[in-house]
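Possible regression after last week's pipeline update?

I re-ran a chain I had predicted before the update to compare outputs. Posting the input and the new output here so someone can diff against the archived version. Not blocking, just want to make sure nothing changed silently.
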Amino acid sequence: MSATRTHGLMDGKEFRKSLRQYKPTVYVDGDLIESVVDAPSLQPGINALAVTYDFAHDPALAPLMLAKQTVSGKTVNRMLHINESAGDLLNKLETVRLLCQETGCAQRYLNHDALNGIGQAIAKIDDAKGSTEYGAKFSAYLQRHPITHNSSIPHIHGTADLQRDGKRSDLLQAFPDRLGTGVTVVFAPEKPAKAGDQPHHLTQGG
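New output (post-update):
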């Protein structure tokens, strides 16, 4: 792998630096955390996420940790790649095994699943419009912002019928449509998302 293939890709040190740009309100055991990056109690999670960035710069791991986007022609971290083939799916699985062997739980692989879900939705929009506009914008966004999402799957107690009938509305949380898109996001959290204080953004799905 030549040096130019990873030129511009974020590494673990840059990931930690990027977290300093965010000022989340975080409490651990009732204590306010002034700096997520410097808090000893949060280091295991941050270190695990940093591995996903550092491994992308290891020439021996390039076949798994790097992927080439067809739309842009650029090489990206596997965790930011929108799958384009069966080979991409297999490489993602092997990447997850590799990362988890090193870290125990790399955390970031659900980020990859969430981004691919968004990618599929965008592809359908482009297909309906007969264009590639939104897909190109999404790819460009991921190039500019090599972010980590905390993508968690909430678990809910009770039956699906009760939830649909609205009889357990106390279990549902709704985010109002502040952007005027006509879409209100509703999810049913059982508990706060794991490691929600360490990534750049939080995506909650069900």
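Follow-up from reviewer: compared with the archived run. The beta strands are 26-28, 31-33, 66-68, 75-77, 149-152, 173-175, 185-187, 201-204. Marking as no regression found.
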